[in-house]
Structures are given as C-alpha cells and as structure tokens.
C-alpha cells in the first residue's frame, strides 16, 4: 500500500521536480485542494480525484488514507512543499495506526524559494518563515515569533499574510518589526508565482506597512544587509567584505 505526499511547487508542471512527476504517474488516485488539482490537470487525466474545499483538510486526508487501504496507489498534493504548511504532517498523524501504508514524501519548491528567485536573492543568509494565519496558531505566538526574528536580524518570509478576516495583520507585523529595524529596510512582495498573473514589487518596510496583500502573496522582509542591486532584492553574505 503506497501513499505519496507530493509538493508540486508554486504553479504546477513547469516547476515540479521530475521525481514528483514520476510518482504522480504511478498513482491511481489523487487528493488535493481543487485549485492545486487544476494546476496539474494534464498530469492527472483519467485518475480518480478526491477533492474538497479549503477547510476540509482532515476529511480529504482521511479519504486518501482509506483509498490507500483499499489498495490504490494514492497521491496527496500540496502546493509548494508538502511539509511547509502543507498536508505531510497531517497525513502522518492520520496514518499513525496504519503501518501497512508506506508513505513517501516528495519535496517541492516552497514559495520562499520560488518567490526569492523572482525577487533576486533575499535569503542568502539566515532567514525565518512565519505564517500570519491565526486559524491554528494563536496571534500572541505569531507576534512573539515575529519580534524574535526581527530582534535577531533575520530576513523574514511571511506566508498567509492576509485573508478576508485578517485585513490588518501585515500592518501590525510591520509595526512590530519597525521597533527593531529601520523604516528603509528593503522588502519585496510576490504574487501568483509561476502563474499567469505573476507579479513582484520591491519597497521599503514603511511602504510595506501600508500595502494591501492577499492570500496569494508571499512577503519578504530584508535584514540589515539587504540592498537593491540592479533592481533586485539581494541580501549580502559578506563575501566581498561589504
Ligand atoms: N505549501 C506551500 C505553502 C502553503 S501556505 C509552499 O510550500 O509554498 C499558503 C501560502 O503560501 C500563501 O498564502 C502564500 O503566502 C504562499 N504561496 C503559495 N503559493 C504561492 C504562489 N504561487 N505565489 C505566491 N505565494 C504563494
């Protein structure tokens, strides 16, 4: 009994690994959020689909487990990397008492990497990734993590920076970072990486504070060594002594 947990990268086929494509070929049944299954439509023609809306993660993973128990080769799909705010952890929890299912996780390009490449090289040095979604993590914990990261002069990547219910979270986070980093700190936002409407923009931390973002955006906040070189966001590692 085989269950693959596959990260498909930011936008599907073009940015998937060969290993992910090969694993998908072996599967009879594919489980994932509708948007992600649509992104890989060409690769899953004729395969059974387990698809549910955004908030049905547990149901979807349970259905995937049951399909594997019924002898199907199953793929559970996440965008980016399945281990980064994806389905991999939940899948292991749900399969905990079913040792007969062999689980294989196949990594994908997470938004921090694909978005970082679009902007230039913002994550050359130590960085942290923080999700601003407080659905499963209390807001006080998120605040503490942001403050510690800013205090430590880490570059910061923000996933899930806003939603319809969380309109001012980015502003609040910028205000916390501004306690430790100057207003001119270089920042970047990327939206819809790898997809048709892809866009990116560089700005300062004080401008980011007043910028509207949505769930399709990933936000990059530079550190004291981040600068703009030839229109790109670059964090220096210090090779040239500058
Ligand atoms: N597992 C995914 C992350 C899922 S959390 C990964 O590894 O990339 C969802 C968040 O990821 C979004 O709110 C956004 O911040 C980021 N994201 C995922 N795909 C994106 C894309 N194509 N363009 C921009 N941001 C993206």
Secondary-structure map:
Blueprint: E1 2-7, H1 18-26, E2 29-33, H2 34-39, E3 48-52, H3 57-69, E4 74-78, H4 88-94, E5 102-106, H5 111-119, E6 120-121, E7 127-131, H6 139-151, E8 155-159, H7 169-177, E9 186-191, E10 199-204, H8 205-208, E11 217-221, E12 226-229, E13 232-235
Parallel strand pairs: 1-4, 1-5, 2-3, 2-4, 6-13, 7-8
Antiparallel strand pairs: 8-11, 9-10, 9-11, 12-13
Q: Can you offer a commentary on this structure?
A:
There is one protein chain. With 242 residues, this protein is an alpha/beta fold. It folds into 2 domains: 2-106, Cobalt-precorrin-4 Transmethylase, domain 1 (3-Layer(aba) Sandwich), CATH 3.40.1010.10; 111-235, Tetrapyrrole methylase, C-terminal domain (Methyltransferase, Cobalt-precorrin-4 Transmethylase, Domain 2, 2-Layer Sandwich). Helix content is 29%, strand content 26%. It has helices at residues 18-26, 34-39, 57-69, 88-94, 111-119, 139-151, 169-177, 205-208, and strands at residues 2-7, 29-33, 48-52, 74-78, 102-106, 120-121, 127-131, 155-159, 186-191, 199-204, 217-221, 226-229, 232-235. The chain has a 5-stranded parallel beta sheet, sandwiched between helices. The protein is elongated, with a radius of gyration of 19 Å. The protein starts with a strand and ends in a 7-residue tail after the last strand. The model has no long low-confidence stretch (mean pLDDT 95). It binds S-adenosyl-L-homocysteine. Residues 10-11, 78-81, 84-86, 110-111, 115, 159-160, 190-195, 215-218 line the site of S-adenosyl-L-homocysteine.
């Amino acid at each position: 009994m085989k269950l693959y947990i596959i990260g498909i990268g930011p936008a599907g086929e073009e940015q998937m690994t060969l290993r992910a494509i090969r694993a998908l070929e072996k599967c009879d049944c594919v489980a994932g959020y509708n948007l992600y299954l649509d992104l890989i439509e060409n690769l899953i023609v004729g395969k059974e689909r387990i698809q549910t809306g955004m908030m049905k993660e547990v149901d979807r993973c349970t259905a995937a487990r049951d399909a594997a128990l019924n002898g199907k080769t199953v793929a559970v799909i996440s965008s980016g990397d399945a281990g980064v705010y994806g389905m991999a952890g939940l899948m292991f929890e749900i399969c905990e008492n079913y040792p007969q299912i062999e689980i294989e996780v196949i990594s994908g390009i997470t938004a921090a990497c694909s978005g970082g490449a679009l902007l230039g090289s913002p994550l050359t040095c130590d960085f942290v990734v923080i999700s601003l979604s407080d659905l499963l993590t209390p807001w006080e914990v998120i605040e503490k993590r942001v403050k510690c990261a800013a205090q430590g002069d880490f570059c910061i990547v923000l996933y899930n920076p806003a939603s319809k219910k969380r309109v001012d979270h980015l502003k609040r986070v910028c205000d916390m970072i501004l306690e430790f980093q100057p207003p001119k700190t270089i920042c970047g936002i990327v939206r819809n990486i790898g997809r048709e409407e892809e866009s990116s923009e560089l700005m300062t931390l004080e401008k980011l504070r007043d910028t509207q973002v949505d769930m399709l955006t990933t936000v990059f906040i530079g550190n004291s060594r981040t600068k703009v070189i030839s229109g790109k966001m670059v964090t220096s590692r210090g090779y040239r002594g500058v």
